[in-house]
Amino acid sequence: MRLYPKTWREDLARYKIVILEESEVIKKARSSGVLSVTNCSRTKGELSDKKVPKEFYVSSLNLRFYRWCEKIKVPYGVLSDMYGLHLWNEEKEYYDVHPSKLNSFQFRKLGSLIYYKMESIKCNQLLYYGLPPVTCTPYFRMMIVAGFPIFYTTKLPKE
């Protein structure tokens, strides 16, 4: 009997996280009640003012995600180690918190922040884009605590 999953896919399945095929991603993103999300990045914009996500988290993965969401016209958010969920139209102040510095209580707090933010925008499902899957664990943890169904993709298909 194996105690640990053999692959990251098996690990996600244990938590009922659905891995989408590339052909399913755009349809899911455009579904009612779904918010497309990615995780924050170490690469952040200038420290000066409050910023919306596409000016704040500026890694190449994040920039690709914003362009994709805007192209297919879906709302989006960034899972944040400070704010829980930073929505596309919200301006937030600079921070520098790494997920490895968070304890269980802080993860529960971030999950709760995600839950209330999702409720406020009338969304009840998360479509998460993140790479590589093994480094996404802290963000899966936040989403699991939030309690909404989670769909996962490693690819942003062309329309």
Keywords:
159 residues; alpha/beta; Rossmann fold; 6-stranded mixed β-sheet; 6 helices; globular
Quick description:
With 159 residues, the protein is of the alpha/beta class. Helices cover 37% and strands 16% of the residues.
Radius of gyration: 15 Å
Total strand segments:
6
CATH class: Alpha Beta
Task: Write down the domain tally.
Answer: 1
Low-pLDDT segments, ≥5 res: none
CATH architecture: 3-Layer(aba) Sandwich
Strand portion, in percent?
15-25%
Strand order of the largest sheet: 1-6-5-2-3-4
Q: How confident is the prediction overall: mean pLDDT?
A: 92
Major beta-sheet overview: 6 strands, mixed
Query: What name does the CATH topology carry?
Result: Rossmann fold
How many helices? The count is 6
Question: What does this molecule look like?
Answer:
With 159 residues, the chain is an alpha/beta fold. It has one domain (15-153): Rossmann fold (3-Layer(aba) Sandwich), CATH 3.40.50. Helices cover 37% and strands 16% of the residues. The chain has six helices and six strands; from the N terminus they run αβαβααββαβαβ. It has helices at residues 8-14, 22-29, 53-56, 60-72, 104-120, 137-146, and strands spanning 18-19, 34-39, 76-80, 84-87, 125-129, 150-153. It has a six-stranded mixed sheet, sandwiched between helices. Strand 5 (125-129), helix 6 (137-146) and strand 6 (150-153) form a beta-alpha-beta unit. Helix 5 (104-120) crosses helix 6 (137-146). It is globular, with a radius of gyration of 15 Å. The relative contact order is 0.21.
